Amino acid sequence: MMNFEVKADPELWEKIGVDVTRLSKMREVLTDLYKKAFLSQKNRPEGMRYFDEVISNIHTGRIREILQAKEEGRPVVGTFCVFVPEEIIVGLEGVCIGLCGGSQGTIPDAEKVLPKNICPLVKSAYGFRIGRVCPYFQVLDVLYGETTCDAKKKNYELYAEELPTYVMEIPQMKRKVDEELWLKEVKAFKEHMEGVAKRSLTEEALHEGIKIINRKRKALQRLNELRMTENPPISGKDVLLINQISFYDDPVRFAEKVEALCEELEERVKRGEGVSERGAVRVMIAGTPMALPNWKVPNIVENSGGIIVYEESCIGSRYFNNLIPEESKDLESMLLNLTRRYMKINCACFTPNEERIQDILSAYERSKAEGIIYYSLAFCHTYNIEAYKVKRACEERGIPFLFIETDYSPEDVGQLQTRIEAFLEQIRERRS
Ligand code: BJ8
């Protein structure tokens, strides 16, 4: 696999309006980064080969598949948040793509328009769009935004100037009245999506969408259980990668591949075969999502004698926790069940948000982690402020806690390395 490369297809890129010169350079950087971060790991499961191929085809093969889907009349939908109901998109045979940006490379583009002091995830994604370096943006039929944080919310107004954009209003509290609002929003979204897809969402179609996405979430839950075992059979970085890929790949094929990987990992667990040295420090990450290719902190943790055993994040447990019951088959109950499932996502955009703290504490127990790294992207006010309450809850229980606020630039790598190493050392000392 050392001959791995992120493939190029200048002809295809030209056709869809990508800046070919820039994307060619970016894919070289990504190839290099991927080799160093992933292919250098020892004792990787065989089943990771599929996910390597996905990355290799991320700007080519998958784009061709999406163009084929478009030709078949299937809509291509971009999203930025796990609140946008994927079951409805898939029920209407849409292709759903997560567009969050995790690269420093496009931030200067965005900063020509957006302020410097906002979240890098927002800037990176917008930079991909205006710099024309993301093939996915180029093939979208519609972008679905949401009113979670202010940075995203206001940025959608700019996207709307050049792309068909529709924004869902996400409640910021979890009272009965908020659930009612969210149900209305889900129904309005369904109607809008039906217009885009030029078909109506039948009961059978929604039921099928629920089954497909449930299966995908279940596969990720199974993977998560396996990575939490005593001697984890897969690295935290690989699990993060799989979670990142879940936002790009075909959901049926993706679930099959994760299930196949889980079978391999179950065998490893039976044999007691792990990926890291025995005694590696078990770390849980909680906080803001790490979008592709943001592997900065996991790289440092796992190169310093730690292993990540849980991610409380939307590219992690907040995406795959909770399924929609499959017993109901009439439209009203399915939409209500869907609404309730989504209202369980504990994003820091909600207030109050005690449930998230309880979720973190219980995941900490279940994963047998030895410490929590709370990861917040710079200028993400909600996660940054909520860190205080999580820290306090950890201190009350004697849970080692490290707060990190960072962005995508490599400038703080040395400083983060020192802090993370010291944190892992502090945990090792507690053991003895
Ligand atoms: S449900 S976490 S996917 S909003 S990190 S862009 S919040 S300033 S990503 Fe998120 Fe939905 Fe919440 Fe999940 Fe804004 Fe914060 Fe940036 Fe964020």
From the structure above, extract its key features.
54% helix; 4-stranded parallel β-sheet; alpha/beta; globular; 432 residues; 8 strands; binds Double cubane cluster
Describe the 3D structure.
The chain is α/β, with parallel strands linked by helices and 432 residues long. The protein has one domain (10-431). The chain has helices spanning 10-15, 20-39, 48-56, 61-71, 86-91, 107-110, 120-130, 135-138, 150-159, 176-197, 203-227, 236-245, 251-271, 296-303, 317-320, 331-343, 354-367, 381-397, 413-431; strands at 76-79, 95-98, 142-146, 165-168, 281-287, 306-312, 371-377, 401-406. The strands form two sheets. The chain has a four-stranded parallel beta sheet with strand order 2-1-3-4, with helices on both faces. Strand 1 (76-79), helix 5 and strand 2 (95-98) form a beta-alpha-beta unit. Helix 3 (48-56) packs across helix 12, helix 10 (176-197) packs across helix 16 and helix 14 packs across helix 19 (413-431). The radius of gyration is 21 Å and the shape is globular. The two termini are 40 Å apart. Bound molecules: Double cubane cluster (BJ8). Double cubane cluster binds next to helix 7, helix 9 and helix 18.
